[in-house]
Amino acid sequence: REHALLAYTLGVKQLIVAINKMDTTQWSEARYQEIIKETSNFIKKVGYNPKTVPFVPISGFNGDNMLTASTNCPWYKGWEKETKSGKSSGKTLLEAIDSIEPPKRPNDKPLRLPLQDVYKIGGIGTVPVGRIETGVLKPGMVVTFAPSNVTTEVKSVEMHHEQLAEGQP
After folding, report:
1. What sequence ranges are listed for the domain Translation elongation factor EFTu-like (predicted)?
2. Partner of 91 for a Cys bridge, out of 11, 69, 120, 137, CB 3.0 to 4.6 A?
3. What are the contacts of 126-129 at 24+ separation with CB within 8 A?
């Protein structure tokens, strides 16, 4: 419950529910349906649409329905979910993970780079540090910082001490 609420609060748009330890219930279809009903009601209250969430019965300990379909649950016909690009379906947790659509990066929007820190390094100059939320940052661009209205040219873009041709969200 807390994970679904936290995920939604942090902006996670896509969800997979893996119903683990199905081997301890002898792969009971009734228990599987009960968990789907309870979980669907809860995630609906949080803000997710249960039709977009695959529910996969698994046994992590035995590896059932993780990579390949299990023979222990002949009643399980597979999961199905609706997305913006259509319906997708599968049987295993791996297929559910593969069905996750990568989020669209907001590269087409104006540059927004909230600063986390500014370092003044002798021989190099002033180094602003932050995460690009929208837009693209390239060496040679002229940028203006708000609210100070300081304008400067970008000399280089780096991430973890590695130079980049451009920075993106």
Report:
1. 125-167
2. 69
3. 126/152
